Structures are given as structure tokens and as C-alpha cells.
Amino acid sequence: MSPIKPTHQRRARSPLAARQALPTRQRPRAFAHFEQATVADKANASLAAFVAESGLYDVVIEDSPVAYGRKTQNMNHNATPSKHYPTMSNQALLDFDLKQVCSPDCILAMWSPASQLPLAMERMKRNGFEYITAIVWHKLLPSGKPANCATKGAVLPEHELLLLGRRRAGVPIPRAGQGANYIARIHGVIAAIRGAHSQKPTLFHHELMRLFPTTKDGRPCRFLELFARSAVPGWDAWGNQTPGSAPLPPPTPAIVQVAPTMMQQVAA
């Protein structure tokens, strides 16, 4: 009886064979980091052009498009940030140079979900700000009931933090007695009705204007919102959802857009 011949033989791979492209899920992490590094670089360039046109600001509020440290593009939940606007990875946010728009003595108000507090504190430190305190926004539905979103965690996220930081001397707070019935204070917990996804109540803008009206030299403070979603009276704005402002870089490198030379200043 003749020996049974194998039906399959493994062929040696030719060294000249073309390399096959790896599927997206198998691409090295460095590729994803390059994408987000590009996003940060373009955002920094766009902000630098805005600063060249508009100058520096004394009070800056920022509501960054945080991705919660994970890829959320394929999630179906309506609360997923990427379903409402392009998000930025943690590394891209760390590389975002927001201090270039801040005056030497400046106040920074940075929004942060409770789960992203370590990231916000690190970003504040990298940009040269000393953490002072925080304000808690208790989110409410129009009915007055707490507004929380679905989560697998033990704590229902029905609040958000507004961190306050100071650069050098910051901006002085007017003391009680300066003007009729003027008390420069703000409550640590503020309950307000929640609007569109991630949109913050404008009462926080007004409270910051009341809390920090003038610089230490007596000049009226200049106010700016980064990643703004709408125009607020008294505030200039930079962001891809502000009327008349330039778009931020796209979330993936597959779509290439050239950032405009400058971002328009929103009229007060």
C-alpha cells in the first residue's frame, strides 16, 4: 500500500510578497496616538491664530469634548458624546495648549465629569494653573427631578464639576461693601435645568462675570469660552458649534480639512 499523501502543504511566504494592511482593530496603538496628536496640533494652531487676532483673556471657561477615555463611536446610547460632536482623546486634551489664550494673571473655570476629575486636574496643572475650588452643578429635568443618565456604575451621574484654577495672582474678588448690596460670593452647589447634551446653563457664565469683574489693575476683565456651543452675551467664543467660528479638526484622519487662518470673535 502506498503512503497517504497530504492534501494540504504549507507554502513558504515569499519575502517579496506585498504586505497586507492590518484591519483597524489590529493596527498598533501608535497609529491611534498619531491621529489624536494631529487633532491636538491642529486645535493648537487654530487657537494660536485666534489669539493673534483677539488677544489674551482674563477669565476662561472650558468645556472640553472629552471621550471618557474610551472609544465610543460604536455605542448606541444617546448620551455618547461622539454622537453629538467630535471628541478628543485624553492624550489629545493633555496636549491641547489652552494657556496660550490666557493672560499672565488669569482665572480658569474647567468643566469636568466626576469620573474624569484626575484628567482635568492634570490638564490644569500642565497649563500652569493652581487649583482653588470647585462648583457642583446638580442637573435637573424641567419637572424638577434629578436628571441622570444610564450607567453601570454605583453612582448615578446627575452632577458635573466646574473646577476653578488660578494662574499667578489670578483675578481679585470684590469684597463685600464695594458698591450697594454687592457681595461677591457664589454657592458651592447650584441646581439648574439641563439643556441639550453637554450644554451648560448660562447662569454659570453670569456668575463668573459677577465674581471676577475687573483685573487687579482695575481694567474690566475679558471673558472667553473654549469649545463653546453657543454665544453668551459678554463672552467671546472659540469652538466648532459657535455661530461664525471655525471648525475643529475632524475626529478621524480619513477626512482632511484645513483649519481656517483665524476664528471669528463672537460679539458680546
Gist?
It contains four helices and seven strands.
Describe this structure in words.
The chain is of the alpha/beta class and 268 residues long. It has a domain at 56-234: Rossmann fold. Helices cover 19% and strands 18% of the residues. It is built from 4 helices and 7 strands; from the N terminus they run αβαβαβββαββ. Strands 5-3-4-2-1-6-7 form a 7-stranded mixed sheet. The longest helix is centred in the first third of the chain and has 26 residues, at 29-54. Mean pLDDT is 76; it is low at 21-34, 72-76 and 244-268.
Key words describing this protein structure:
268 residues; alpha/beta; Rossmann fold; 4 helices; 7 strands; 19% helix; globular
CATH topology of the domain at 56-234, which one?
Answer: Rossmann fold
Low-confidence stretches: 21-34, 72-76, 244-268
Radius of gyration: 24 Å
Could you tell me the mean pLDDT?
76
Estimated share of beta-strand residues: 15-25%
Q: How much helicity do the residues have?
A: 10-25%
Number of DSSP helices? Answer: 4
| Class from secondary-structure proportions | alpha/beta
Lay out the secondary structure:
Elements: H1 29-54, E1 57-62, H2 90-95, E2 102-112, H3 117-126, E3 130-140, E4 159-167, E5 189-193, H4 203-211, E6 223-226, E7 236-238
Parallel strand pairs: 1-2, 1-6, 3-5, 6-7
Antiparallel strand pairs: 2-4, 3-4
